Amino acid sequence: MSTTIGLDIGGTKVLGVLLAADGGVEREERLASPHTGLEALVATGASIVAQLGAPGAPVGVGAAGLVDREGVLRYAPNLPNVREAPLGDALAHATGRHVVVDNDASAATLGEVTYGAAVGRRDVLLVTLGTGIGGGFLFDGRIYRGAHNFGAEIGHFTVDPNGPLCACGERGHWESIASGTALGRMARDLVARGGGAAMVAAAGGDPSAVTGTHVGIAAAQADPDARDLLVQYSENVALGLAGLANILDPECVVIAGGLVELGPLLFGPLREAFARHVEGAAYRPAVGIVPAQLGERAGAIGAAVLARRLLP
Fold first, then answer.
1. Range 251-280 average pLDDT
2. Which run of H or E residues covers position 107?
3. Angle of helix 87-95 relative to helix 38-52, nearest 10 degrees?
4. CATH number of this structure's domain 4-110+297-310, picked from the four choices 2.60.120.10, 3.40.50.620, 3.40.50.2300, 3.30.420.40
5. How big is the CA angle at 156 (ends 182 and 268), to the nearest 5 degrees?
6. Looking at domain 119-292, which CATH architecture does it have?
7. Is residue 257 predicted with pLDDT exceeding 90?
8. How far apart are CA 258 and CA 128, in angstroms?
9. Global confidence as pTM
10. CB-hemisphere CA count at 13 Å for 273?
11. CA separation for the pair 157, 176 (Å, rounded)
């Protein structure tokens, strides 16, 4: 089996890996995600492919949004200028390579099932916490994609009809209160009320620049405001996780995305809150909530695994 390339296209960055036959990452490249349209997005992806090398290696893509079975990115909430975009064909034309495209969280699920935290599991819920919230379902050993390949858009169910505006335009979706973007908004709200000094300091003194990353930095320094904020945020994440666990009954929940780097500062309060909200916690086998072993590379590695179907 030859090497393949995987691209993970999100609202913040495009991450690419060159994956060896044994699952090892031989090279990694990343660029910021452009927000001007398909042409710029394809140019960014093609640039990363060129940097990764391996001429002729097929390319798998995991894109954050509704990707149909023909590789068309129909809708991407966090890439607002990309709609009805023939991403697969455009990237194949730009790179001269064979390309396959899927949803980013489905790709991350494939990565974790093949090489990460879900190896040997048959029923898994994967949740990506980043700019938005993505999801992947492993049902009886197979990734579930739905009738139109749009399944597992778990960030977009309503938890509060009067809640914050989601990137998709609806109010109170789970993503609007539990994504990394939501954590940053919660932090800036706290700063506006006079708190969060350590988070502002981490952001270089600019209150408007505070993001979830700065919450993590301050929390790692034992700042009480940041740690309290993570407890509140974990409650928001747990509400959605518990509801999904009640519906799907997974063996485990794998958390992927940039927020995984918070480690116990996130997973401690998240597990506690989940146990309070899941149905019959004392009467069911424990549902493990574990970090993706592949970290932020999960989507790119899964996309590279997906590309193996294109090998001769």
1. 94
2. helix 104-115
3. 50
4. 3.30.420.40
5. 50
6. 2-Layer Sandwich (3.30)
7. no
8. 8
9. 0.88
10. 18
11. 10
